[in-house]
Design brief:
The structure is a homodimer. The longest helix of chain A is centred in the middle third of the chain and has 28 residues. By secondary structure, chain A is mostly helical. Chain A has eight helices and no strands. The N and C termini of chain A lie far apart (about 50 Å). Chains A and B meet through helix 5, helix 7 and helix 8 of A and helix 5, helix 7 and helix 8 of B. The structure holds a DNA duplex.
Chain lengths: ~210, ~210
DNA sequence: TAAAATAGAGTACACGTGTACACTGAAACT
DNA sequence: AGTTTCAGTGTACACGTGTACTCTATTTTA
């Protein structure tokens, strides 16, 4: 029951996943990857691909899940840092920028497939981003005692701004990334301040 | 000198452009379009394509320019409406949503190519978005007497939020689009309020 | 009016693609 | 020990692709 076979299968499955991730870059999107290329990179015959995924879409959705995991891992890291004190906004942005730096291709995958041509991909990415947003929303409600609706609007706006900044930071050198970080921090402060002002009044919108 | 020939050429050039734009949809991106498909849709032999563009990339960049024009046209429309009175934020968002509704494929093109695999495309789209942002920045400085740096940060954040909302509004029915509009308006108010608060202090960041 | 230019069509080719199918050898089961 | 399962291979095929090349008909120029 040890499963020497299942074990090997899992291993080459990972090789396929890693091969796909490894081929992503600023000039190569997942949708431009071919089954044959991925199989070749993984050291497999093209037709062996089918032993693991029914088509490239299935591999792609697995990659999105993978990305979601990485993203949540990132959040845990950020929360740990915050608990040790410091500006919440600054730590969050810095953590996110570190994520971009060491997981550029994963982030690119999320960015691209979010506006891509597959409804399933778009849904998968949006689901991951929503988790991200809702966790931030909870945090804002607890930490800042915000009205629930206001907290959601703030969290949603903040995530949008940070993701957009991440996108800008992808193909840029360290100095520029620093600039982008500072700009983003300031913009998040605007939003936080604005939200705080409005949190007394009743806000009727929620999506 | 009337140029019956040049005239005809311009006409089929437009047919190519329109054919390409017409094939875009939520499940079809520009990069997935083939030269042959576009030529066929335009009623041309594949090889005749080369009489007008050296490759698909050149057509694509033309499309991005086209999109930029449409975007600026949109801004003019918004400004006219604003001059006739009303909430600036609300009118801007409503105008933008109208744009999405009637130019969905053009907006999709911008969204996708902004994070696409061609550096030239990304640069072209970012240039158009920057124009958009700078015009808003000027407006904010004049209308709200804001500090130049704060105005830029606000404009940049606002454009990011609005574009993201546009992306969310693409594949959604009228009611949901209305929801998104209200959410966006409120978020823009947060930013405006926050920026106004900060505009007294000195802000050191500018990108 | 004769010559040159050129938008567009048609043919042809090499290439990369997804995948159907038959096969192999080793692991897993009975 | 004998049988079954199955991850991985190799071959083969039809298809869509970009584009080089030649030819044609018509406009433009000289």
């Amino acid at each position: 029951m040890s499963g020497i076979r299942a074990q090997q299968k899992e291993k080459t499955r990972r090789q396929l996943i890693d091969a796909a991730l490894g081929q992503l870059s600023s000039e190569r999107s997942f949708s431009s990857l071919s089954l044959r290329e991925v199989a070749k990179e993984a050291g497999l015959a093209p037709t062996s691909f089918y032993r693991h995924f029914s088509d490239m879409d299935e591999l792609g959705l697995t990659l999105v899940d993978e990305a979601g995991l990485t993203l949540r891992q990132l959040m845990r890291q950020a929360r740990q840092r915050i608990e040790k004190g410091g500006s919440v906004i600054q730590i969050s942005v810095v953590t996110f920028m570190e994520f971009i730096e060491s997981n550029g291709n994963i982030f690119r995958l999320l960015l691209r497939e979010r506006s891509g041509t597959s409804a399933a991909f778009r849904a998968a990415v949006n689901r991951e981003v929503r988790y991200f947003t809702l966790e931030l929303c909870d945090y804002l409600q607890q930490a800042n005692k915000l009205n629930a609706d206001v907290a959601f609007l703030q969290a949603d706006a903040a995530v949008t701004i940070v993701f957009s900044a991440g996108s800008d930071a992808l193909d840029v050198d360290k100095d520029d990334r620093q600039q982008i970080s500072m700009r983003t921090i300031q913009q998040l402060r605007f939003i936080a301040r604005g939200a705080a002002e409005f949190s007394h009044r009743v806000v009727k919108v929620r999506t």
